[in-house]
């Protein structure tokens, strides 16, 4: 995120050497070590920028408010910082550590509204009487609407009420990886890795599997889950699953799994209405010890209507403005973050956009840029466009290759390295790259 803003030189000098060491005791800051004085001088300069971007990004990917804690190497005792934070009694939930549950995902922190009240009511019933009526329980809904939170709330509550219960939370991908690893290990050294896998999953009291749409078109893991499923349900053990699609819409999901899923109950989570969105913001405000006027919460709640994750993102952006940039908790500040969010939405960078801008700058056509012609100016345009695509999008080398006239990935990485070298050596190239990146983002 910082790269386009600060450019490659500063990035290499400052961001690249930062090393994540561990979390602070309260679990709210990620300690980043800054190697030497030179870097720490730059750190001062870019601190605010870094904090803002860090908080935003961390929120997006973890759903938690995590700040960076920059420390020079001398101040970081690397060994000790790795010791994980002690769990306070209030948070303490037996077994949740092993179960893979996030202690923040509780019923208490789940705001109820018209879009999720059914799902929540059933979740509560499952947590209180697992394996009895609603088995399996499938929570269905769009991205960022609280499926994972609700599913883990079931696990957390069950763990709290039954400290000895064996509970496991796994994403569908974890389950697949555990399974394939056990097969591989079993083959390599004839160990009983496969038996161990089966034992782990089949002796649970509650199994929570997140995002089962991931198994689309993967028959082997479906087969294994079918067996796990049967073993657990036969013993009246609870299974909870989430999916962003109905089982019928998951491509190549085996019919027998579909019919198993239908034995239980499915509930869906819909987008929150404006009242619920404001209630979620109010909740976040209380949890984070802030005092934000109602009309400000109302404004943010009305404006951010895609899903709860983006709503939380907006809240933390607002929080960051107040805490780090000394902005007041007013309508004006809210409007400024909403404008930024809108601008970011518009600034989705596509390969096509990059190709258009670069081709125009070099007075070439996009078609020629994708061709195999080797005229010098054209080659440079091509390489610059490839470099920008690699740095400004998350496309893989083969994907970039396809977007540039079906080149193989080695010629893409060759082009990238070439420009990268020049950027390091020649400030004119560096400035050109920055200008182009700016134009690509902002028009
Ligand atoms: P999903 O799994 O459906 O993509 P998550 O469960 O990860 O969504 O939710 C995204 C974020 O929104 C999480 O931080 C979660 O705590 C929060 N969230 C979702 N729904 C609610 C709710 N009803 N009340 C409070 N927080 C919520
Ligand atoms: Mg989820």
Structure description:
The chain has 443 residues and is an alpha/beta fold. It folds into four domains: 3-81, no CATH class; 96-269, P-loop containing nucleotide triphosphate hydrolases (Rossmann fold); 274-346, Helicase, Ruva Protein, domain 3, CATH 1.10.8; 351-442, Chromosomal Replication Initiator Protein Dnaa, Chain: A. Helices cover 58% and strands 10% of the residues. The protein has helices at residues 3-15, 37-62, 78-81, 96-99, 117-128, 147-161, 172-189, 193-202, 219-234, 255-262, 274-287, 294-303, 308-324, 331-346, 351-361, 366-370, 376-392, 397-403, 409-425, 427-442; strands at residues 19-23, 29-34, 67-72, 137-141, 167-171, 206-210, 238-243, 265-269. The strands form two sheets. A five-stranded parallel β-sheet has the order 5-6-7-4-8, sandwiched between helices. It has a three-stranded mixed β-sheet with strand order 1-2-3, covered by helices on one side. The structure holds adenosine-5'-diphosphate (ADP) and magnesium ion. Residues 147-148, 210-211 line the site of magnesium ion.
CATH topology of the largest domain: Rossmann fold
What's the CATH H-level homologous superfamily of the largest domain? P-loop containing nucleotide triphosphate hydrolases
Please report the number of helical segments: 20
Overall 3D shape: globular
Q: Strand order, biggest sheet?
A: 5-6-7-4-8
SSE run: HEEHEHHHEHEHHEHEHEHHHHHHHHHH
Class from secondary-structure proportions: alpha/beta
Q: How would you characterize the largest beta sheet?
A: 5 strands, parallel
Overall strand count:
8
For the record, the count of structural domains works out to 4
Low-confidence stretches: 78-97
Share of helix, binned: 55-70%
Kindly report the average pLDDT value.
Answer: 86
Instruction: Report Rg.
Output: 25 Å
CATH architecture of the largest domain: 3-Layer(aba) Sandwich
InterPro entries: AAA+_ATPase, Chromosome_initiator_DnaA, Chromosome_initiator_DnaA-like, Chromosome_initiator_DnaA_CS, DnaA_C, DnaA_dom, DnaA_N_sf, P-loop_NTPase
Keywords: ATP-binding, Cytoplasm, DNA replication, DNA-binding, Lipid-binding, Nucleotide-binding
Domain AAA+ ATPase: 133-270
Domain Chromosomal replication initiator DnaA C-terminal: 350-419
């Amino acid at each position: 995120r910082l790269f386009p803003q600060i450019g490659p030189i500063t990035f290499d000098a400052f961001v690249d050497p930062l090393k994540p060491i561990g979390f602070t005791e309260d679990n709210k800051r990620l300690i980043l070590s800054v190697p030497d004085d030179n870097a720490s001088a730059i750190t001062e300069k870019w601190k605010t920028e870094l904090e803002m971007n860090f908080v935003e990004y961390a929120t997006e990917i973890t759903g938690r408010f995590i700040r960076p804690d920059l420390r020079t190497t001398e101040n970081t005792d690397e060994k000790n910082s790795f010791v994980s934070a002690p769990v306070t009694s209030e948070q303490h939930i037996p077994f949740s550590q092993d179960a893979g549950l996030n202690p923040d995902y509780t019923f208490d922190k789940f705001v109820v509204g018209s879009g999720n009240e059914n799902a929540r009511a059933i979740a509560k019933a499952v947590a209180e009487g697992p394996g009895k009526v609603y088995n399996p329980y499938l929570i269905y809904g769009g991205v960022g609407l609280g499926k994972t939170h609700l599913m883990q709330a079931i696990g957390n509550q069950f763990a709290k009420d039954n400290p000895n219960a064996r509970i496991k939370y796994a994403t569908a991908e974890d389950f697949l990886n555990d399974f394939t690893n056990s097969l591989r290990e079993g083959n390599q050294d004839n160990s009983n890795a496969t038996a161990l896998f089966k034992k782990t999953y089949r002796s649970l009291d509650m199994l929570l599997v997140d995002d089962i749409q991931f198994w689309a078109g993967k028959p082997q893991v479906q087969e294994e889950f079918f067996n796990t499923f049967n073993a657990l349900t036969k013993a009246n053990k609870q299974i909870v699953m989430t999916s962003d699609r109905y089982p019928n819409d998951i491509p190549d999901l085996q019919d027998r799994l579909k019919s198993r899923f239908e034995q239980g109950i499915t509930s869906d989570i819909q987008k929150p209405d404006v009242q619920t969105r404001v209630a979620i913001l109010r909740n976040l405000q209380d949890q984070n010890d802030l005092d934000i006027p109602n009309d400000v919460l109302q404004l943010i709640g009305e404006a951010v209507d895609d899903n709860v994750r983006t709503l939380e993102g907006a809240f933390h952006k607002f929080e960051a403005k107040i805490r780090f940039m000394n902005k007041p908790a007013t309508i004006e500040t809210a409007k400024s973050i909403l404008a930024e969010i809108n601008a970011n939405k518009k600034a989705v960078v596509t390969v096509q956009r990059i190709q258009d801008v670069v081709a125009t700058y070099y007075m070439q056509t996009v078609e020629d840029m994708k061709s195999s012609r080797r005229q010098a100016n054209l080659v440079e345009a091509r390489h610059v466009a490839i470099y920008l695509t690699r740095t400004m999008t998350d496309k893989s080398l083969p994907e970039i290759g396809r977007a540039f006239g079906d080149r193989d990935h080695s010629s893409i990485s060759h082009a990238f390295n070439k420009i990268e070298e020049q950027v390091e050596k020649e400030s004119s190239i560096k400035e050109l790259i920055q200008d182009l990146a700016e134009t690509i983002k902002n028009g």
